[in-house]
Design brief:
Layout: E1 8-11, H1 17-28, E2 32-37, H2 41-53, E3 58-62, H3 71-86, E4 91-96, H4 111-132, E5 136-145, H5 158-177, E6 184-190, H6 196-204, H7 208-214, H8 225-235, E7 246-249
Parallel strand pairs: 1-2, 1-4, 2-3, 4-5, 5-6, 6-7
Helix pairs in contact: 1-2, 1-8, 4-5
Protein backbone atom coordinates (compact mmCIF):
# COMPACT_ATOMS: atom_id res chain seq x y z
CA UNK A 1 0.00 0.00 0.00
CA UNK A 2 1.22 3.50 -0.80
CA UNK A 3 2.42 5.30 2.32
CA UNK A 4 0.42 8.51 1.76
CA UNK A 5 -2.77 7.00 0.38
CA UNK A 6 -5.80 9.05 1.41
CA UNK A 7 -3.74 12.08 2.39
CA UNK A 8 -3.95 15.58 0.94
CA UNK A 9 -0.87 17.80 0.87
CA UNK A 10 -0.65 21.55 0.32
CA UNK A 11 2.74 22.40 -1.15
CA UNK A 12 3.52 26.07 -1.71
CA UNK A 13 5.59 26.93 -4.75
CA UNK A 14 5.01 23.50 -6.25
CA UNK A 15 4.59 24.36 -9.92
CA UNK A 16 8.33 24.02 -10.52
CA UNK A 17 11.70 23.23 -8.99
CA UNK A 18 12.02 21.64 -5.58
CA UNK A 19 8.35 22.13 -4.75
CA UNK A 20 7.28 20.26 -7.86
CA UNK A 21 9.57 17.37 -7.04
CA UNK A 22 8.20 17.25 -3.48
CA UNK A 23 4.66 17.18 -4.85
CA UNK A 24 5.46 14.43 -7.36
CA UNK A 25 7.17 12.24 -4.79
CA UNK A 26 4.24 12.50 -2.40
CA UNK A 27 1.86 11.80 -5.28
CA UNK A 28 3.85 8.66 -6.08
CA UNK A 29 3.09 7.58 -2.52
CA UNK A 30 -0.62 8.17 -3.06
CA UNK A 31 -1.16 11.72 -1.77
CA UNK A 32 -3.43 14.20 -3.53
CA UNK A 33 -1.82 17.59 -3.98
CA UNK A 34 -2.89 21.20 -3.65
CA UNK A 35 -0.41 22.97 -5.93
CA UNK A 36 0.34 26.69 -5.60
CA UNK A 37 2.02 29.01 -8.06
CA UNK A 38 2.77 32.72 -8.10
CA UNK A 39 2.49 33.82 -11.75
CA UNK A 40 2.79 30.91 -14.19
CA UNK A 41 -0.60 29.18 -14.30
CA UNK A 42 0.34 27.11 -17.37
CA UNK A 43 3.32 25.66 -15.55
CA UNK A 44 1.09 24.87 -12.57
CA UNK A 45 -1.46 23.10 -14.77
CA UNK A 46 1.32 21.05 -16.34
CA UNK A 47 2.36 19.95 -12.85
CA UNK A 48 -1.25 19.07 -12.05
CA UNK A 49 -1.33 16.87 -15.13
CA UNK A 50 1.88 15.10 -14.10
CA UNK A 51 0.40 14.41 -10.68
CA UNK A 52 -2.80 13.10 -12.22
CA UNK A 53 -0.77 10.83 -14.50
CA UNK A 54 0.56 9.21 -11.31
CA UNK A 55 -3.00 8.40 -10.26
CA UNK A 56 -3.49 11.19 -7.71
CA UNK A 57 -5.81 14.18 -7.75
CA UNK A 58 -4.49 17.74 -7.85
CA UNK A 59 -5.72 21.32 -8.03
CA UNK A 60 -3.74 24.50 -8.64
CA UNK A 61 -4.15 27.77 -6.74
CA UNK A 62 -2.55 31.17 -7.23
CA UNK A 63 -0.65 32.30 -4.12
CA UNK A 64 1.92 35.02 -3.53
CA UNK A 65 3.48 33.98 -0.23
CA UNK A 66 4.75 37.52 0.29
CA UNK A 67 1.22 38.99 0.19
CA UNK A 68 0.03 38.21 3.69
CA UNK A 69 -3.27 40.05 3.20
CA UNK A 70 -4.28 37.53 0.52
CA UNK A 71 -4.09 34.48 2.79
CA UNK A 72 -7.66 34.59 4.09
CA UNK A 73 -9.05 34.58 0.55
CA UNK A 74 -6.62 31.83 -0.45
CA UNK A 75 -7.73 29.52 2.36
CA UNK A 76 -11.37 30.30 1.64
CA UNK A 77 -10.72 29.07 -1.90
CA UNK A 78 -8.89 25.99 -0.62
CA UNK A 79 -11.77 25.20 1.75
CA UNK A 80 -14.28 25.45 -1.09
CA UNK A 81 -12.27 23.12 -3.33
CA UNK A 82 -11.78 20.60 -0.52
CA UNK A 83 -15.54 20.46 -0.07
CA UNK A 84 -16.41 20.35 -3.75
CA UNK A 85 -13.65 18.03 -5.01
CA UNK A 86 -12.87 15.84 -2.00
CA UNK A 87 -15.99 16.21 0.16
CA UNK A 88 -13.67 17.09 3.01
CA UNK A 89 -13.08 20.15 5.14
CA UNK A 90 -9.42 19.57 5.96
CA UNK A 91 -6.04 18.40 4.66
CA UNK A 92 -3.13 16.49 6.18
CA UNK A 93 0.25 17.87 5.13
CA UNK A 94 1.55 21.44 4.79
CA UNK A 95 4.86 22.03 3.03
CA UNK A 96 6.12 25.62 3.17
CA UNK A 97 8.45 25.55 0.18
CA UNK A 98 7.82 28.71 -1.86
CA UNK A 99 10.67 31.18 -1.80
CA UNK A 100 13.17 33.38 -3.54
CA UNK A 101 16.89 33.79 -3.13
CA UNK A 102 19.13 36.86 -3.15
CA UNK A 103 22.89 36.78 -3.63
CA UNK A 104 23.97 40.14 -2.23
CA UNK A 105 26.75 40.99 0.24
CA UNK A 106 25.58 42.38 3.56
CA UNK A 107 27.15 45.76 2.77
CA UNK A 108 25.07 46.03 -0.41
CA UNK A 109 21.75 44.59 0.80
CA UNK A 110 18.98 47.16 0.47
CA UNK A 111 16.06 47.49 2.83
CA UNK A 112 13.75 46.59 -0.06
CA UNK A 113 15.61 43.32 -0.68
CA UNK A 114 15.64 42.53 3.03
CA UNK A 115 11.91 43.19 3.35
CA UNK A 116 11.08 41.08 0.30
CA UNK A 117 13.06 38.16 1.69
CA UNK A 118 11.47 38.60 5.10
CA UNK A 119 7.93 38.63 3.69
CA UNK A 120 8.38 35.60 1.44
CA UNK A 121 10.79 33.47 3.46
CA UNK A 122 9.74 34.14 7.06
CA UNK A 123 6.57 36.19 7.55
CA UNK A 124 4.76 34.34 4.77
CA UNK A 125 5.35 30.80 6.10
CA UNK A 126 4.58 31.96 9.65
CA UNK A 127 1.14 33.28 8.74
CA UNK A 128 0.37 30.64 6.09
CA UNK A 129 0.85 28.06 8.82
CA UNK A 130 -1.25 30.06 11.27
CA UNK A 131 -4.09 30.35 8.76
CA UNK A 132 -3.77 26.67 7.83
CA UNK A 133 -4.04 25.30 11.37
CA UNK A 134 -7.87 25.20 11.50
CA UNK A 135 -7.84 23.16 8.26
CA UNK A 136 -4.94 20.86 9.19
CA UNK A 137 -5.96 17.49 10.57
CA UNK A 138 -4.82 16.33 13.99
CA UNK A 139 -1.93 13.96 13.42
CA UNK A 140 -0.88 16.02 10.41
CA UNK A 141 2.52 17.12 9.20
CA UNK A 142 4.18 20.51 8.76
CA UNK A 143 7.40 20.52 6.73
CA UNK A 144 9.30 23.77 6.36
CA UNK A 145 12.18 24.35 3.97
CA UNK A 146 15.41 25.95 5.13
CA UNK A 147 18.90 25.84 3.65
CA UNK A 148 22.35 24.52 4.37
CA UNK A 149 23.37 28.18 4.48
CA UNK A 150 21.79 28.43 7.93
CA UNK A 151 24.59 26.12 9.19
CA UNK A 152 27.57 27.12 7.03
CA UNK A 153 28.37 30.51 5.51
CA UNK A 154 29.01 31.46 1.89
CA UNK A 155 29.44 35.21 1.38
CA UNK A 156 26.49 36.92 -0.27
CA UNK A 157 23.62 35.09 1.39
CA UNK A 158 23.47 36.82 4.78
CA UNK A 159 19.90 38.15 4.57
CA UNK A 160 18.53 34.99 2.95
CA UNK A 161 20.18 32.70 5.49
CA UNK A 162 18.98 34.87 8.39
CA UNK A 163 15.37 34.33 7.31
CA UNK A 164 15.92 30.59 7.04
CA UNK A 165 17.49 30.51 10.51
CA UNK A 166 14.26 32.10 11.72
CA UNK A 167 12.26 29.35 10.02
CA UNK A 168 14.28 26.71 11.83
CA UNK A 169 13.57 28.28 15.23
CA UNK A 170 9.91 28.77 14.30
CA UNK A 171 9.63 25.08 13.41
CA UNK A 172 10.78 23.99 16.86
CA UNK A 173 8.11 26.19 18.41
CA UNK A 174 5.47 24.70 16.12
CA UNK A 175 6.52 21.21 17.18
CA UNK A 176 6.20 22.16 20.84
CA UNK A 177 2.91 24.02 20.56
CA UNK A 178 1.14 21.55 18.26
CA UNK A 179 2.22 18.37 20.03
CA UNK A 180 -1.11 18.08 21.82
CA UNK A 181 -2.72 17.72 18.37
CA UNK A 182 -0.16 15.08 17.37
CA UNK A 183 1.02 17.34 14.53
CA UNK A 184 4.73 17.10 13.81
CA UNK A 185 6.82 19.97 12.46
CA UNK A 186 10.23 19.49 10.87
CA UNK A 187 12.69 21.31 8.62
CA UNK A 188 14.39 20.08 5.47
CA UNK A 189 17.55 22.05 4.71
CA UNK A 190 18.84 21.46 1.16
CA UNK A 191 22.43 22.17 0.27
CA UNK A 192 23.44 23.53 -3.12
CA UNK A 193 20.82 22.36 -5.62
CA UNK A 194 20.87 22.88 -9.38
CA UNK A 195 17.33 24.19 -9.91
CA UNK A 196 15.97 27.12 -11.86
CA UNK A 197 16.20 29.32 -8.73
CA UNK A 198 19.98 28.81 -8.58
CA UNK A 199 20.56 28.54 -12.31
CA UNK A 200 21.55 32.18 -12.80
CA UNK A 201 24.17 32.05 -10.03
CA UNK A 202 25.67 28.83 -11.36
CA UNK A 203 25.77 30.08 -14.95
CA UNK A 204 27.20 33.51 -14.11
CA UNK A 205 29.94 32.02 -11.93
CA UNK A 206 31.62 29.30 -14.03
CA UNK A 207 33.70 27.96 -11.15
CA UNK A 208 30.90 27.94 -8.58
CA UNK A 209 29.53 24.46 -9.27
CA UNK A 210 33.03 22.98 -9.19
CA UNK A 211 33.76 24.73 -5.88
CA UNK A 212 30.49 23.54 -4.34
CA UNK A 213 31.14 20.00 -5.54
CA UNK A 214 34.63 20.10 -4.01
CA UNK A 215 33.27 20.89 -0.51
CA UNK A 216 30.57 18.22 -0.71
CA UNK A 217 31.42 14.72 0.52
CA UNK A 218 29.52 13.09 -2.34
CA UNK A 219 31.37 15.24 -4.86
CA UNK A 220 28.54 16.94 -6.74
CA UNK A 221 25.85 19.58 -6.57
CA UNK A 222 22.38 18.30 -5.72
CA UNK A 223 19.34 17.99 -7.97
CA UNK A 224 15.65 18.33 -7.14
CA UNK A 225 15.20 14.55 -6.99
CA UNK A 226 17.57 14.47 -4.00
CA UNK A 227 15.07 16.41 -1.87
CA UNK A 228 11.59 15.13 -2.76
CA UNK A 229 12.05 11.77 -1.10
CA UNK A 230 13.11 13.37 2.18
CA UNK A 231 9.90 15.39 2.26
CA UNK A 232 7.80 12.35 1.36
CA UNK A 233 9.40 10.44 4.23
CA UNK A 234 8.67 13.20 6.76
CA UNK A 235 5.06 13.32 5.53
CA UNK A 236 4.60 9.59 6.09
CA UNK A 237 3.75 7.47 9.11
CA UNK A 238 7.35 6.20 9.04
CA UNK A 239 8.40 9.62 10.42
CA UNK A 240 5.76 9.81 13.15
CA UNK A 241 8.42 10.03 15.89
CA UNK A 242 10.53 12.65 14.11
CA UNK A 243 9.54 16.05 15.46
CA UNK A 244 11.15 19.46 15.81
CA UNK A 245 14.15 18.34 13.78
CA UNK A 246 16.34 19.90 11.11
CA UNK A 247 17.28 17.38 8.42
CA UNK A 248 20.01 18.65 6.13
CA UNK A 249 20.03 17.09 2.67
CA UNK A 250 23.25 18.46 1.23
CA UNK A 251 25.33 15.45 0.27
CA UNK A 252 27.64 16.33 3.17
CA UNK A 253 28.65 19.95 2.54
CA UNK A 254 31.41 21.46 4.67
CA UNK A 255 31.71 18.48 7.00
Amino acid sequence: MKKLAGKIALVTGSSRGLGKEMALRMAQEGADILVTYNTNSEQAQATVQEIEALGSKAKAFQLNTGDIQSFDAFFDEVSGVLRSEWERSSFDILVNNAGIIAHVPVAETTEATFDQLANIQLKGPFFITQKALPLLNDGGRIINVSTGLARFSIPGYGAYAAMKSGIETYTRYLAKELGTRQITANVVAPGAINTDMNKASLESNPGLEQMLSSVTALGRVGVAEDIGGVVAFLASEDARWVNGQRIEASGGMFL
